[in-house]
Design brief:
Elements lengths: L1 E2 L4 H12 L6 E2 L11 H5 L5 E4 L3 H7 L4 H21 L2 E7 L22 H14 L4 E6 L1 E3 L6 H9 L5 E4 L3 E2 L1 E3 H16 L6 E5 L5 E2 H15 L8 E4 L13 E2 L4 H7 L10 H9 L8
Parallel strand pairs: 1-2, 1-3, 3-4, 4-5, 5-10, 6-9, 7-12, 8-13
Antiparallel strand pairs: 8-11
Helix pairs in contact: 1-7, 4-5
Length: 293
């Protein structure tokens, strides 16, 4: 059962599963939002597993920090965890590098202690701890997830790069750029192996190869934009300290994750994000050579 089938990640996972003739019980966001009262009726359909993508967009693209919104998310996810335990159903939950303070110079592994520095990261760390006491779980921590939503991480950066104005970007903001289709691939790979009765429950990191700075990602995007004719001139990119940017104090300066455990356990190899940029731009900006207004 896929909760959140109508967001970008849910759509990518549904399409990938369909290409492999795997049928998902897809549930989109109901009118009025996600309510715990609906959980028993959904789980009465007796799914083998539940993939919780209900708040993917709010957490991974918007980085919502509003206390009331976070409380509503926390309440739903907590109720979902309890319902899955009651029905003895595997639960797959997303988390992120926000559970770390970003001070470590190297990529974070699953063994590193959490130290969230913002409300969203604190909520994710709290939900992780609640789920870790339940055996039948998978927690997938992600770094920078890139999708085609206009107001998402990638969309905001593309707007800056296509504006014909100087672009100010943070220095030494590091992470793993990970296209949403790659995340869908990893989720489906996890589910298929667990469905074969492999008791590989637990916490795993995944990020696209290789670790990059935000400025390096921007420069790679510029080359793709120029080559495809979306822009005519190389924009001026001005590096500034991370501490001067709006994401400081909200996102870890180092959001890089080590994917060694998921590789050794499931055989899931990281894919190079650079080779997937052209496809992302096609989805985000429309037909080739159609320049954004």
């Amino acid at each position: 059962m896929l909760l959140g089938a109508d967001n970008r990640l849910g759509q990518a996972l549904t399409a990938l599963a369909a290409a492999e003739d795997i049928q998902l019980m897809a549930v989109g966001q109901p009118e009025g939002g996600w309510r715990a009262e609906a959980l028993d009726s959904w789980l009465a359909q007796q799914p083998d597993a539940v993939v919780n993508l209900t708040h993917y967009h709010e957490q991974f693209q918007l980085g919502v920090q509003d206390a009331r919104t976070l409380q509503a998310q926390r309440a739903f996810d907590t109720a979902l965890l309890a319902a899955c335990q009651q029905h003895d159903v595997l639960l797959l939950m997303l988390s992120s590098a926000r559970v770390f303070d970003g001070l470590k110079p190297a990529p974070y592994s699953e063994k590193d202690e959490t130290a969230p520095a913002d409300p969203l990261g604190a909520m994710q760390a709290e939900l992780e701890q609640r789920l870790l006491v339940w055996e039948r779980h998978l927690i997938l921590r992600l770094s920078w997830v890139l999708d085609s939503s206009a107001e998402g991480q990638l969309g905001r950066l593309l707007t800056q790069l296509c504006s014909a104005q100087p672009v100010t970007l943070a220095e030494e903001w590091r992470g793993n750029p990970t296209p949403v289709t790659d995340v869908a691939r990893v989720i489906l790979a996890l589910l298929k192996q667990v469905d074969c009765d492999a008791p590989l429950y637990g916490l795993y990191h995944y990020g696209g190869a290789e670790v990059s700075s935000w400025i390096s990602l921007a420069k790679a995007l510029v080359q793709e934009l120029l080559a495809a004719g979306y822009i005519e001139h190389d924009p001026l990119i001005q590096p500034v300290p991370f501490s001067s940017q709006p994401m400081a104090g909200k996102e870890p300066q180092n959001a890089a994750l080590s994917g060694k455990r998921i590789l050794h356990t499931f055989g899931i190899k990281p894919r190079a994000w650079r080779s997937q940029l052209a496809g992302l731009l096609e989805q985000s900006l429309g037909a080739k050579n159609q320049r954004p207004q």
